[in-house]
Amino acid sequence: MTPRSVPQPPARPDGGLRVVVVGATGNVGTSVVRLLAENPAVGSVLGLARRVPAWRPPKTTWQAVDIEPGGADLVPLLSGADAVIHLAWKFQPTHHPAETWHTNVLGSNRVFDAVAAARVPVLIHASSVGAYSPGPKDRTVSETWPTHGWPQAAYTREKAYLERLLDAYEHAHPDVRVVRMRPGFLFKRESASEQRRIFAGRLVPGRLVRARLIPAVPDLPGLRFQALHTDDAAAAYIAAVSRPVSGAFNLAAGPPVDARVLAGIFDARSFSMPAAPLRVALSAAWKLRLVPASPDLFDAVLRLPLMDCTRARTELGWEPRHTSVEALKEFFEGLQAGAGMDTPPLAARSTAGHARP
What is the model's pTM? Predict the structure, then answer.
C-alpha cells in the first residue's frame, strides 16, 4: 500500500503540543511515544506507566502511576495537556476477570474523568475490533456496526463496556473531542516476547515458530481476521491529535488473514478442521494454566467481523505502510529471535501483564 504522510499538529507558540500517553510502555505505547518524539510540532510527551522504563526517547518524561481506583490523583498529571492518548490495558489474569475489570474498566473511567477535570480538549481511546458484536467474514463493516462484543470473553466484554461509558461521557462532556481507535490485531518485532507471554505462555517457545517446524495450518470455520503493524496504528493516533475528528475509526491492513495466508507465511499447507477439537484442547490447557489465553477469547476471534477502514483513510488521511503479511512476518521473526524492547512489558524476559493487542 502507498504510504501517506502523517498530518503534523499545529505548533503552539510556547514550544509545541503537550501530549500525555497513558500506558506508554507496551506494544502500542512505545510506537506512539516514538512517533510523538520524532514529531517537530510536539513539544513534550509525558509517558505514564506502572513502572518507569530505561528507554529514554527525546522530549519524553516518565511518571510511574497506577490508574486503578485508589491510585494517585491523575488530574495534576493531565493538566495543561493538549491531548491524552489512553492505551493502558491489563490482559492477565484471565482466570480472575474481576481483576482485569478493576484495571481496564474502573481504571479507564478514572482516566476519562481526569481528562474532563483537567480540561484536556482531546481524548483518544484505544478501543478494538474486539468491541464489535459478531459479524460477517465475507464483507466489511463500518464503524456503525454494533459494539456489544462477545460477552463470554473478558477482553471483548471490557472493550464493549468502555464504548458504552464513552457514549455517556460524550454527552456529559461535549467540550472534549473523543476519538475511539478500533484496530485489528497489532504486531511488530519488539512486541513478540510480550505477546507470546500474554497469549501462548511457556507452552509455545518462540524458537519453534518457524517454517520448517510448522508443516500445516488448520483452516477453522471463522478463522479470518485483520492484522496491522503497530507503527501504522500509532500513525493514526498521531493524526487524530491534530485533525478535528471525533468518533470511531477502524484500522486494519490487507489482506485479511486466514489459513491460506498463514500457510503461505510458513510455506506450509492448510487443511480443513472443525473448531471444536482445538477449542477443547485450548480449554484444557487454560484450566491447567499451561496457556494464559482464555478459550473464550478464541471463540471471540472466530466471530469478529472484518472492518472497512474508509473513514480512517478519508478523514485521517491515513494509510498503512505495511501489509498484514509483512506485519506478521516481522512478528514471527521477532518470536524466533526472542525480540523485545527496554521497557518492562516488552522486555525479552518479563512477567508483565500490561500491554495493547
Answer: 0.92
Please give the helix or strand (H or E) that residue 339 lies within, else none.
none
The lowest-confidence range among 9-13, 85-89, 101-105, 133-137 is 9-13
DSSP string, 52-106: --S---TTEEEEE---STTS--SHHHHTT-SEEEE---B---TT-HHHHHIIIII
Distance CA 266, CA 209 (A): 9
Summary count for the chain: helices (H), strands (E):
12, 14
Report the chain's mean pLDDT, rounded to a whole number. 92
Cell numbers at residue 332, please?
Answer: 514471527
Mean pLDDT score, 333-343: 92
Cα–Cα dist 56/85, whole Å = 19
> Which residues, in sequence order, are CB contacts of 322 under 8 Å at separation 6+?
1, 228, 229, 231, 232, 253, 330
Query: Radius of gyration (Cα) for the chain, nearest Å?
Result: 19
| Cα dihedral 314/236/296/22 (nearest 10) | -140
Contact 154, 299 (CB under 8 A): no
Amino acid type, 12: R
Tell me what percent of the chain is helix, strand and coil, each rounded to the nearest 5.
Answer: 40, 20, 40
Q: Residue 275 belongs to what H/E stretch?
A: helix 275-287
Residues 210-261 pLDDT 10s: 556 788 999 999 999 999 999 999 999 999 999 999 999 999 999 999 999 9
Please write down the HEC assignment for all residues of 148-208: CCCCCCHHHHHHHHHHHHHHHHHHHCCCCEEEEEEECEEECHHHHHHHHHHHHHHHCCHHH
SS3 42: strand
Any bridge partners for residue 247, and if so which?
A: 179
* 12 CB-near residues (< 8 Å, 6+ apart): 43, 82
Query: How many residues are given for the chain?
Result: 357
Distances 94 to 47, 50, 293 between C-alpha atoms, Å = 26, 19, 7
CA distance 193 to 187: 11
Sign of CA dihedral 272, 208, 137, 104: positive
In whole angstroms, what is the distance from residue 81 CA to residue 282 CA? 44
